[in-house]
């Protein structure tokens, strides 16, 4: 005789065929851990982070839809079943790469004297950061650190500077603009020129200070300041002999040092003046000598004697003598 059949069912112990894998993602991305438990009977799952159960994480996979820096850590899964003992997967490490972010912007504006140094800096956070400074939107070759320095500024360096901060994750971020203004040092393009004028005429000295920033002028005579002479030109409306001398101008500005022009000499020519007139009248015997003289002051004097208003040829000194007078010599001499 044969007994009735007795069925034997084999329940599979908990097992892990393939556990979760270590992953690196950028903050904000999603991440999924998976486990393959083969044919474990009556399987159940419990995912853990850093050894602590994750509430509700009880399926064969665990997904974080939008990662944050706080999600970084060690993840594993406990696989249980009808049979014991449960098994725990090897831990998978989750690394969260931070997005690039600027935490301190460059200074908004700088006004630098030409020739001085200018420096820009930015503070940023993120993973695998790199930097590229730009001037007016164009990359500056070699400017790839978090600071950018111009050791000796020139006029052409004026502009708006920004930096693009990139990292392992995207997108990159661009700083706010930092405006660099170059203040021009005092300079003299053309200075005052030496002049000669006649007394009573006007004279003007001028200076070109180029693009000096915050320009200020001080004219001097013989090294002493002229009160009120603080413009780019200095005029003496009616010159006198006392105005003769050496004139220069000190050009100052926002930046230092001031500069002084070369000196221009002002020469005042005196007007001709008669200081002693000829004798008013003479009565001379025919055949005797007659002499006329004049004393005069002035610059570059010349003389021309006249008889009755008519030039006397050759009579061009301050005296005029007729050695032997004749009747025809009578007249009015000037």
General description of the model:
The strands form ten sheets. Strands 1, 3, 4, 6, 7 and 8 form a six-stranded mixed beta sheet that branches. Strands 10, 13, 14, 16, 17 and 18 form a six-stranded mixed beta sheet that branches. The model has no long low-confidence stretch (mean pLDDT 97). The protein has 334 residues and is an all-beta fold. It has strands at 23-26, 31-34, 44-49, 52-53, 61-64, 73-80, 87-88, 92-97, 101-104, 109-113, 118-121, 123-125, 130-135, 138-139, 147-150, 159-166, 173-174, 178-183, 195-198, 203-206, 216-221, 224-225, 233-236, 245-252, 259-260, 264-269, 273-276, 290-293, 295-297, 306-307, 310-311, 319-322. The chain contains no helices and 32 strands. Strand 3 and strand 4 (52-53) form a beta hairpin. The protein folds into four domains: 23-97, Immunoglobulin-like; 101-183, Immunoglobulins (Immunoglobulin-like); 195-269, Immunoglobulin-like; 273-329, no CATH class.
Average pLDDT figure: 97
Describe the biggest sheet?
6 strands, mixed
The number of helical elements comes to 0
Percent helix, as a range, is under 10%
Question: What are the SSEs and their pairings?
Answer:
Layout: E1 23-26, E2 31-34, E3 44-49, E4 52-53, E5 61-64, E6 73-80, E7 87-88, E8 92-97, E9 101-104, E10 109-113, E11 118-121, E12 123-125, E13 130-135, E14 138-139, E15 147-150, E16 159-166, E17 173-174, E18 178-183, E19 195-198, E20 203-206, E21 216-221, E22 224-225, E23 233-236, E24 245-252, E25 259-260, E26 264-269, E27 273-276, E28 290-293, E29 295-297, E30 306-307, E31 310-311, E32 319-322
Parallel strand pairs: 1-8, 10-18, 19-26
Antiparallel strand pairs: 2-5, 3-4, 3-6, 6-7, 6-8, 9-12, 11-15, 13-14, 13-16, 16-17, 16-18, 20-23, 21-22, 21-24, 24-25, 24-26, 27-29, 28-32, 30-31
């Amino acid at each position: 005789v044969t007994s009735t059949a007795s069925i034997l069912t084999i329940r599979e112990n908990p097992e892990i065929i393939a556990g979760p894998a270590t992953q690196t993602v950028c903050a904000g991305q999603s991440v999924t851990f998976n486990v393959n438990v083969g044919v474990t009977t009556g399987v159940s799952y419990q995912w853990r982070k850093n050894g602590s159960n994750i509430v509700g994480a009880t399926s064969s996979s665990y997904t974080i839809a939008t990662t944050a820096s706080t999600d970084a850590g060690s993840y594993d899964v406990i696989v249980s079943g009808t049979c014991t003992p449960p098994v725990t997967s090897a831990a998978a490490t989750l690394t969260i790469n931070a997005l690039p972010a600027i935490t301190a912007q460059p200074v908004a504006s700088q006004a630098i004297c030409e020739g001085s140094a200018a420096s820009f800096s930015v503070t940023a956070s993120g993973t695998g950061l790199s930097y590229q400074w730009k001037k007016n939107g164009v990359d500056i070759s070699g400017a790839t650190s978090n600071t950018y320095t111009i050791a000796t500024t020139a006029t052409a360096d004026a502009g708006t500077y920004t930096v693009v901060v990139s990292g392992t994750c995207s997108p990159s971020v661009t700083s706010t603009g930092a405006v660099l203004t170059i203040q021009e040092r005092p300079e003299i393009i053309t200075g005052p020129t030496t002049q000669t004028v006649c007394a009573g005429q006007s004279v003007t000295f001028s200076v070109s200070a180029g693009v000096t920033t915050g320009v200020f002028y001080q004219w001097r005579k013989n090294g002493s300041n002229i009160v009120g002479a603080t413009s780019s030109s200095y005029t003496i409306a009616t010159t006198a002999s006392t105005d003769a001398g050496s004139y220069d101008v000190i050009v100052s500005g926002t930046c230092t040092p001031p500069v002084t022009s070369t000196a221009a000499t002002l020469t005042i020519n005196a007007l001709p003046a008669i200081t002693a007139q000829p004798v008013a009248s003479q009565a001379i015997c025919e055949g005797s000598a007659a002499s006329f003289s004049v004393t005069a002051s002035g610059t570059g004097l010349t003389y021309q004697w006249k008889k009755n208003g008519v030039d006397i040829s050759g009579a061009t000194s301050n005296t005029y003598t007729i050695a032997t007078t004749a009747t025809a010599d009578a007249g009015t001499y000037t």
